[in-house]
Amino acid sequence: MIKKERIFGLDLLRAIAILSVVFSHTFEFLLPLKSIPFVGFLVENFFKFTQPLGALGVELFFVLSGFLIGTILIKTFVESPQFSVSDIRVFLIRRWFRTLPNYWLILTVDILLYALLSIGSVESYKFLFYIFAQNLWYPHPPFFFGEAWSLAVEEWFYLLLPFSIYIPYLVFKPVNKQRFLFKILVAFITVFVLLRFFNAFHPINGPDQDAGIRKVVFLRLDALAYGVMIAYFVYFKRPVINRIRKQLFAIGIIGTICIYYLISNEGLAVCNTDNPTLKFFSDAFLYLILPINFSLLLPYANSIASISNASFKNVIQFVSRISYSIYLVHYSLVYIPFFYQMKIENPLLLFFVYISYWTIVLLLSFLLYRYFENPLMKKRDKYAIQK
Questions:
Q1: How far apart are CA 240 and CA 325, in angstroms?
Q2: Which of 88, 237, 284, 365 is the most exposed place for a label (fewest CB within 10 A)?
Q3: In this structure, how many other beta carbons lie within 10 angstroms of the beta carbon of residue 179?
Q4: Helices (H), the chain
Q5: What is the DSSP string of 296-322?
Q6: Cβ density class 192-222: b for 16+ within 10 Å, e for less
Q7: Chain-centre distance of CA 77, in angstroms?
Q8: Rounded to the nearest 5°, which phi and psi values hold at 6?
Q9: Number of neighbouring beta carbons within 10 Å of residue 233
Q10: Using one digit for the tens of pLDDT, what is the confidence trace for 281-324?
């Protein structure tokens, strides 16, 4: 198989996404430095700056994943003489070799480590995580592997979208695959937009937007579909997209700044507000606006194959390559058990420990990628090949 060249623009977005998530989850560690003149001002303001970044980083991950797997799935669907379960099987096996072994390994280590450190016991609900059933239509468990909610959204999307294409294709046998695929994607997105809209009137999980909407699988399955839609337009309408990709990128950047401001200053994402209009708008439409906005960044990013600054490119590609491993290990495996409860008064020591945390996360993620994730990915075609 021909090795695909990495696309720097997409690597850069992925690196920004994972760094945003990690800073959002862990920069609180440096808050004791607030008492130091000037340094405290910088720390406190950077902490405030990082807080919305976790939610935004995950949404960026969603559209990136949708774009990448959408590109593969669309190409498979269009170029296959008869789109079949065998095509879906190859797609899923290749995807699952990339995501499941790493996830299952870290999940198992988390369960055993928490029991060993008496942070938690081996409760039965934790086994739902193995099949991504911990947050299907109900809130994600609050005190264990909190970052896994987004992985559940992604895995169910990978499973459901191909069959959402295949079953109608089998029934209607469309002649025009391009038009058929567009209708399927619009219908898929519409279903979940309407679910959130009706849920805004009668919340099934209570008023807490973060737990009751943002992190619930069947209220978020369209999160990746906007990336797939961009992949559709890039595949079928490339000349048009190439002409407007810079304008789309500019709109996406401006939109990101506006959304960041609203989340930071108006409580749009957390929505602990007495304003019923703002609450309804946020519950019903925020998770439509966020992925659409980030998806506008993709066409231009996808056009930046490389850059001349080799050192910067190598750093970004390194972070991008190990981003999945970073996501898995940075919080529940490393930060919560070993750093969260630390009480350090010496400012220099505190800063040194935080740098040590980042070193451990990056090193552990690299080792996980180099000796576990990557070797398994190299074997996936052996098992995915159609007999």
A1: 36
A2: 237
A3: 11
A4: 8-26, 39-50, 53-79, 85-116, 148-172, 177-201, 209, 225-236, 238-266, 276-295, 298-303, 310-321, 323-329, 336-338, 347-368, 374-384
A5: TTHHHHHH----S-HHHHHHHHHHHHT
A6: beebbeebbeeeebeeebebbbbbbbbbbbb
A7: 24
A8: -75, 150
A9: 16
A10: 889 999 999 999 999 999 999 999 999 999 999 999 999 999 99
**CA-closest candidate to residue 287, choices 150, 170, 185:** 150
Torsion of CA 185, 190, 191, 195, to 10 degrees: 150
Cβ-contact 193, 130 below 8 angstroms: no
Q: 3-class DSSP state for residue 1?
A: coil
Which tokens is 229 given? Answer: 């839609």
Tell me 28's DSSP state: G
234 φψ region: left (φ > 0), alpha (ψ -120 to 50), beta (else): alpha
Q: How far, in Å, CA of 119 to CA of 145, rounded? A: 12
Residue linked to tokens 């046998």: 173
How do the domains of the chain map onto residue ranges? 8-381
| pLDDT tens digits along 14-48 | 999 999 999 999 999 999 999 899 999 999 999 99
The position carrying tokens 């919305």 is 52
* Residue-level length of the chain: 387
In Å, how far are 66, 250, 252, 292 from 257, measured between CA atoms? 22, 11, 9, 14
User: Which residue's entry shows tokens 């919340």?
Assistant: 203
Q: Which position has the higher pLDDT, 380 or 221?
A: 221
Is 3 in a helix, a strand, or coil? coil
Q: Is the distance from CB of 21 to CB of 252 less than 8 angstroms? A: no
Short-list 174, 185, 173, 171, CA closest to 229: 185
Give the amino acid at 367.
Answer: L
Q: Pick from 32, 14, 55: which is nearest to 291 by CA?
A: 55
- Cα–Cα distance list, 139 to 45, 66, 231, 276 (Å): 31, 23, 31, 22
Q: Name the DSSP letter for residue 6.
A: P
Please give the Cα distance from 21 to 145 (Å, whole number). 14
What confidence tens digit (pLDDT) does each residue in 314-349 have?
A: 999 999 999 999 999 999 999 999 999 999 989 999
